[in-house]
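Researcher: Structure for this, please.
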Amino acid sequence: MILCIETATGACSAALCDDLRVIRVAEAPPGMSHAAHLTVIIQRLLEETGVKATDLAAVAVSKGPGSYTGLRIGVSTAKGIAFGAGIPLLGINTLTAMCNGYLTLHPVDTSSGTLLCPMIDARRMEVYNALFSADGKMVRETSADIIEATSFRDILEEHEIIFFGNGAEKCRNAIIHPNARFTEGFVLSASYLHLPSLNAMKNKQFEDVAYFEPYYLKEFIATIPRKLFL
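Model: Predicted structure, token format:
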């Protein structure tokens, strides 16, 4: 069994998976602090299933890109569990997990040439994104892009692209093309790490528990709270 942890966006969840299925998912209340709830939902998940950390084959965590604070909380927790239980740590690209989740919910004809573009909000008009084929293979690497009217224009001339995730909605009015499709309401879940985690486990793509860090993609820039100027 693999414990999967997701904290890269505003949705905080954990899932227990085996080789065949997602056994159970535990989610924190929407909008609540990841730091306050992550270990609580993990403990509840393990208690409800009668599983101990030492029973696990590995712990997988969404490694980014995403929220700086959220990633730090998720990775720190996963590293603690992996170290304490003496089990491998798996780091899963968040956009890969999103693509897997979308295809689980909305299968796409692999012969259609349709591409999938998961997007994570990076504030203002910037998004973290990558492109995937309909069989889940990454065809354009993860990047942080400021979205403009010309974004994806060359690719949209030849392929339909499905945009989804918490960064996609703000791009709807910028990316206008007959081949651009937007899916609303997609919420990231730890259960979407299931297949990517199994693949990482099979290929022995383990992270160094001591030195593994989240995939922030861009530097964190601290700002002074606006209320200090009042």
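Researcher: Any notable elements?
Model: The helical segments are 34-49, 68-85, 94-105, 153-156, 194-202. Residues 220-230 have pLDDT under 50 and may be disordered.
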